[in-house]
Every structure is written in C-alpha cells, then in structure tokens.
C-alpha cells in the first residue's frame, strides 16, 4: 500500500509537470525568484502573488525607431514606463526602462540616456515599504553618470525581470529607513524612506531625497 501510494503521487506530479505550458513554466520560475527576493521583506508582496507577471508592459512598436536602431542586435525582453529622478536636483522625468538580453537602457523618447551592462551591475536596491522606488547601482567609472533612481508601477515584476536577466538575484537588497546612492565623481546621496498619509517623492530641506 505504501509503495503504491508513493508511485501514485510520483505519477500525479509527473502528469502535472508534463502538462505545464512553456508560458506557465516561465511564470512559475519568475514567481519563485520574486518569493526569494521579497517574501517577508517588502510591503505589498503578498497582494502581488496572484497577479501574473506580464511579458512586457510596452511592445517594440511603442519604442522610437531611433532607439531601436541604437540597440540593434540585442533582443528586447521587457519594456516598462518609469519615472527617473535626477541624481542632483531629483527632478522627476518620464522615461522608459528597456531590458534586453545583455543590458538595461534608460530611454528618453528618441535618446538612450544611460546603458547598463548586466555584467557591470553592482546591485539593485528597494525599500521594505510599499513605494515603487528602485535604485540600480553601477560601477564608478567614466562610462556611468551614477546610480539610476527609478519609480516603477509594477515594482515586483520589474525587479524580478531585471535580476533574472542579469542573473544577479543575490544582489537585490530590500532596505529599511534609508540607502546611499552614487551621484557621480565620487559623491554620494542619501534617500530616506518614511510613512505618511499620501505617497510622494521630494527633495527635503537637508538635501536628501525623501520617499513617503
């Protein structure tokens, strides 16, 4: 009886696994990574579990042809609208985050504002609160202007896609209170996370970027 029970369970599992479509398998793989990165660490994660990740939020047709020419040869894997905050004055600007097989691009209409090769990516930071802020940490060299500060509507989806494509799940940090980011030329800035009645992002009087 015990032997038959084990065989039956193995057979049921085998039938389920063989019946999973390729699309469903990708979803499950992404959700496993999201669980490892966010479960018990970031607010809003539990509510996101039953929401399937989209393949992309924008299609290639939504990207300016000039940008497509500049990244020619790289297969686009994911595109989403984001708000980028300047590293100095923290002015908010509408941008696109384009993820290819090998690089992440911050795009302004017909211009590539910043390119980050996954091999050089130093880390990905987000807070433990329900904001959609993500900081992409880059090396301190002449090719990079500094770390990238973005606000994403689909934060769990975007970070999961980015760290899987870069194969750097272990570099994602969920921080509490504050985090440091590189402005450029050896300078650093501070971002403070707090709780309030309404979500907002602004430059405080002390010069710090405050995320509510």
Automatic annotation (TrEMBL):
<protein>
    <submittedName>
        <fullName>MYO1H protein</fullName>
    </submittedName>
</protein>
<dbReference type="Pfam" id="PF06017">
    <property type="entry name" value="Myosin_TH1"/>
</dbReference>
<dbReference type="GO" id="GO:0016459">
    <property type="term" value="C:myosin complex"/>
</dbReference>
<dbReference type="GO" id="GO:0003774">
    <property type="term" value="F:cytoskeletal motor activity"/>
</dbReference>
<feature type="domain" description="TH1">
    <location>
        <begin position="42"/>
        <end position="212"/>
    </location>
</feature>
<dbReference type="InterPro" id="IPR010926">
    <property type="entry name" value="Myosin_TH1"/>
</dbReference>
């Amino acid at each position: 009886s015990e032997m038959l029970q084990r065989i039956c369970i193995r057979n049921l599992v085998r039938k389920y696994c063989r019946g999973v479509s390729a699309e469903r398998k990708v979803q499950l793989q992404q959700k496993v990574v999201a669980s490892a990165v966010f479960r018990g660490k970031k607010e809003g994660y539990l509510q996101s579990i039953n929401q399937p990740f989209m393949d992309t939020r924008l299609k290639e047709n939504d990207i300016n042809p000039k940008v497509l020419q500049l990244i020619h040869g790289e297969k686009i894997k994911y595109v989403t609208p984001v708000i980028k905050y300047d590293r100095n004055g923290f002015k908010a600007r509408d941008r696109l985050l384009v993820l290819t097989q090998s690089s992440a691009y911050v795009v302004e209409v017909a211009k590539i504002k910043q390119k980050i090769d996954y091999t050089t990516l130093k880390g990905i930071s987000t807070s433990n609160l329900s904001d959609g802020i993500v900081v992409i940490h880059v090396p301190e060299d002449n090719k990079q202007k500094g770390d990238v500060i973005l606000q994403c509507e689909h934060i769990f989806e975007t970070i999961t896609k980015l760290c899987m494509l870069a194969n750097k799940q272990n570099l994602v940090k969920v921080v509490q209170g504050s985090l440091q980011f590189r402005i450029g030329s050896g300078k650093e800035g501070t971002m403070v996370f707090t709780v309030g009645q309404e979500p907002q992002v602004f430059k405080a009087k002390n010069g710090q970027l405050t995320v509510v």
